[in-house]
Specification:
The chain is an alpha+beta fold. The chain has three helices and three strands.
Length: about 120
């Protein structure tokens, strides 16, 4: 099992940010069964930098724990509950919707190329 909070902490530490601007969740994957998706509430450039930095040897994260940038999803803010805790269902829903839209777009593009 991949500890999502450890990845979130690594992403935030990579940018020197203490507030919750990344949320990691699992989304369905046809090949692996599940893959990591990351919601982020920073600039695209900051998210790319964080993604690259956590792949560095100094953090010692296994490759299984490293999300790929195409699976990063920009959001205005990370969903939170009224208690101030992260809304894990909301995070999972937003990530799944974004990944499904991207997958549908890729499949539609492939179908139109074959026509």
């Amino acid at each position: 099992m991949v500890p999502h909070i450890r990845i979130e902490d690594a992403l935030q530490a990579a940018l020197g940010i203490s507030e919750q601007v990344f949320a990691v969740t699992g989304v369905p994957d046809d090949k692996k069964g599940e893959r990591l998706a990351v919601l982020y509430a920073v600039t695209d450039e900051q998210a790319k930098v964080a993604c690259e930095r956590i792949g560095g040897a100094d953090l010692n994260l296994p490759s299984l724990w490293l999300p790929r940038f195409p699976d990063f999803v920009k959001v205005p803010q990370i969903p939170v509950l009224g208690t101030g805790k992260m809304d894990l269902r909301g995070v999972k829903r937003l990530a799944a919707e974004a990944v499904n839209q991207r997958t549908a777009g890729v499949q539609a593009g492939s179908a139109s190329e074959q026509s």
